[in-house]
Each structure stands twice: as structure tokens, then as C-alpha cells.
């Protein structure tokens, strides 16, 4: 469990640095995400402080790399995960 917390924070640190650089250079941040554990690990940290203070979600353009052939509201849907973790 401690290992997952370390990985989650490291991923959030990396994405936050990329986000800040992209917004400074281009005024927006584009990210492609897969579903599953990687998305969960990122969302655990980046949607909480101290990261949340740096994020202007209006500058994020999120693309889903993989989507299962399931309804968008299915627990297996990558879209649902992105919607619940980042868009609401």
C-alpha cells in the first residue's frame, strides 16, 4: 500500500510538471490516458492537495486511449473513470 502511494505521488508530480510546462508554452495541456490502475493512481493524488491548487481543469484536453465496448456508465468504462475522477 505504501508503494502505491509513492507511485501515485510520483505520477502526479510528473504530470503536474508536464501540465505547468505545457500551459506556459502553449496555454493548454493535452494528456492521453488509459483506463485501469494507471488512471486510478494518477487520480488519487492529482485531484487532492497540494496538486489541486495548481490545476486549472479548463486547460486540460483529455483523450482516452482505450475504451472497452461497454456502456459509458459501466464500471469497466474508461470514459466513466475519467468523468468521475477528473470532470465532475
The main β sheet shows up as: 2 strands, parallel
What series of H and E elements makes up the topology? HEHEH
The number of helical segments is 3
Mean pLDDT: 88
> What characteristic shape results from the CA principal axes?
globular
Radius of gyration: 13 Å
- Helical proportion? 40-55%
Strand residue content: 5-15%
Strand arrangement across the biggest beta sheet: 1-2
Structural class determined from secondary elements: mainly alpha
Distance between the termini: 26 Å
Describe the fold and architecture:
It is built from three helices and two strands, in the order H-E-H-E-H. The protein is mainly alpha-helical and 88 residues long. Helix 1 (2-26) crosses helix 2. The chain is globular and about 35 Å long.
Amino acid at each position: 500500500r505504501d508503494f502505491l502511494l509513492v507511485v501515485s505521488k510520483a505520477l502526479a508530480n510528473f504530470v503536474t510538471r508536464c501540465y505547468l510546462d505545457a500551459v506556459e508554452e502553449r496555454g493548454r495541456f493535452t494528456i492521453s490516458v488509459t483506463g485501469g490502475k494507471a488512471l486510478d493512481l494518477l487520480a488519487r493524488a492529482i485531484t487532492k492537495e497540494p496538486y489541486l491548487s495548481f490545476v486549472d481543469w479548463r486547460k486540460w484536453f483529455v483523450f482516452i486511449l482505450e475504451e472497452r465496448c461497454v456502456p459509458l456508465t459501466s464500471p469497466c468504462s474508461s470514459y466513466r473513470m475519467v468523468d468521475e475522477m477528473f470532470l465532475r
